[in-house]
Q: What sequence folds into this?
């Protein structure tokens, strides 16, 4: 379907990124959402569309955390545009209940501290939203407190600081330490946040590329002594929450300390542009990392780039770079979409959707159209669609199209 023809199905999508985000929100919820095991009062995202069976072993706790974050984004957008966010907020609470039940009745059941940290960040956002509208925060606050206790237990003096990745305590990494630093900022522990971010900068920061290596393994050397092995892999999402923490520390500090964190935030943005940015015509588009867990990575970076783009603590050039990466990536994802009507044959690329039912499938790669990267008949993963939704919400918060 041509771009011109596709636009006719979405009034105002050519002039308002909020309309695009709203369509992404509707699509993900309608295509993937369902009750957990049919239990009333629950709602959860199926890991794929078409759905696997209810009793499939497939379970991605941290995908649900980012689904919750995206729901909160959507509710914020609704509030800011004068819409009623009650149904979206209710769904977020139903998702929290489903995650808790699916984890065996304990919100901290998961083995991975980074997974729990993502959920903690999402719950903090949900709590703040509910407080702003006079909603109920009791269950959210209780769940957050339980998570925070476990997360803080992973911050030890082993390897001079940083966060363990799992309960096995054999690996400290950026994926856990970055979110934990941001959590500390948001739970009135700025010194803990600064300590975690300093550890990241000393242990895992690549000063030439201005990105973070993945982590440090605790090993036994050939002579039987304890040692470490650096995992040099670089992923877009590792820059995201570390950027968020640097920005919030800069905003909350004064004098030289604030300037230092602002400078570090600017370095992270510059590194994200150099390492993950790709030229696509007159656009600068973030690259992605494929499918599976990696299918969510770049959406996380986009979230925190949008925060950087709005931060008065950062210099104008840094804000402009962050803004461009978010907007250009969101626009590329939108233009590469494939439209889909759930009442038509999912395997028929020629099927034309009804405007009132229209859904949108987004490419896992903003540099490729969905017809190529996510063709009709191929299973669609929840993670890649949350990535696109998150990026579109990030763009919507920056501005409508001008």
A:
């Amino acid at each position: 379907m041509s771009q011109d023809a596709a636009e006719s199905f979405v009034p105002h999508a050519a002039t308002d990124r909020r309309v695009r985000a709203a369509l992404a929100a509707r699509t993900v919820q309608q295509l993937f959402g369902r009750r957990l095991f049919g239990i009333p009062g629950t709602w959860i995202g199926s890991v794929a569309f078409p759905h696997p069976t209810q009793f499939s072993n497939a379970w991605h706790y941290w995908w649900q955390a980012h689904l919750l974050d995206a729901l909160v984004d959507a509710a914020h957008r609704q509030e800011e545009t004068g819409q009623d966010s009650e149904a979206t907020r209710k769904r977020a609470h139903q998702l929290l209940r489903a995650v808790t039940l699916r984890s065996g009745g304990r919100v901290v059941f998961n083995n991975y501290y980074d997974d729990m940290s993502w959920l903690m960040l999402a719950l903090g956002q949900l709590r703040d939203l509910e407080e702003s509208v006079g909603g109920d925060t009791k269950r959210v606050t209780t769940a957050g407190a339980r998570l925070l206790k476990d997360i803080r237990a992973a911050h030890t003096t082993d390897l001079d600081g940083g966060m363990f990745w799992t309960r096995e305590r054999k690996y400290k990494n950026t994926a856990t330490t970055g979110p934990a630093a941001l959590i500390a900022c948001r739970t009135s522990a700025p010194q803990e946040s600064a300590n975690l971010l300093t550890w990241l900068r000393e242990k895992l920061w690549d000063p030439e590329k201005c990105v973070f290596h993945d982590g440090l393994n605790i090993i036994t050397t050939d002579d039987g002594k304890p040692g470490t092995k650096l995992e040099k892999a670089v992923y877009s999402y590792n820059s995201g929450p570390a950027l968020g923490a640097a920005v919030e520390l800069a905003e909350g500090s004064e004098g030289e300390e604030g300037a230092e964190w602002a400078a570090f935030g600017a370095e992270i943005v510059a590194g994200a542009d150099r390492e993950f940015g790709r030229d696509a015509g007159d656009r600068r588009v973030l690259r992605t990392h494929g499918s599976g867990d990696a299918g969510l990575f770049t959406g996380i970076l986009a979230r925190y780039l949008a925060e950087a783009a709005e931060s008065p603590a950062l210099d104008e050039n840094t804000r402009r770079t962050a803004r461009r990466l978010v907007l250009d990536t969101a626009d590329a994802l939108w233009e590469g979409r494939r439209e889909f009507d759930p009442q038509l044959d999912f395997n028929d690329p020629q099927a034309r959707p009804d405007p009132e039912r229209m859904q949108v499938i987004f490419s896992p790669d903003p540099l490729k159209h969905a017809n190529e990267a996510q063709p009709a008949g191929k299973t669609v993963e929840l993670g890649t669609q949350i990535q696109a939704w998150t990026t579109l919400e990030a763009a919507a918060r920056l501005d409508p199209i001008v």
